[in-house]
Amino acid sequence: MDSFLKADIFFFVSTVFTILLGVFLLVFLFYMLRIARNAKDISERIRESVKEISEDIEDKRKQIKYGGIGLSDIVAFFTKKPKERPAKKTRNKAGRSAKKKSAKKK
Questions:
Q1: How do residues 66-84 score in pLDDT, each as one tens digit?
Q2: How far is it, in rounded angstroms, from Cα 28 to Cα 47?
Q3: What is the DSSP code (8-state) at residue 81?
Q4: Handedness of CA 59, 63, 65, 71 (dihedral sign)
């Protein structure tokens, strides 16, 4: 009788373990599918961006080939400094624009 009781306990524990393992595997697969779907979306965005960039490069190549742009224009494009942005206006507590005080020169 004692061996049958041990066998019943073993089968009960193994059944519970198998069910829990199946639930964990389903949750794991669910998250893996979400990650794979996100990776697919990211790769599609990258593919579209690369296609647009290659089209832009092809257009510039045609411009260079047919004399629409020179080497000096390309060098100037990569070496020019960005334009400075105007200073942002700050607002006081009442919501009115406040002028920034400039430092006086001595």
A1: 776 667 777 777 787 766 7
A2: 28
A3: P
A4: negative
Helix (H, G, I), strand (E, B) or coil at 91: strand
* Alpha carbons 95 and 102: distance in angstroms, whole number: 21
Phi, psi of 66 (to 5 degrees): -100, 15
What is the full DSSP assignment across the chain?
Answer: -HHHHHHHHHHHHHHHHHHHHHHHHHHHHHHHHHHHHHHHHHHHHHHHHHHHHHHHHHHHHHHHHTTSS-HHHHHHHHHPPPPPPPPPPEE-TTS-EEPPPPPPP-
Residue 95 DSSP code: S
> In this model, does residue 65 exceed pLDDT 50?
yes
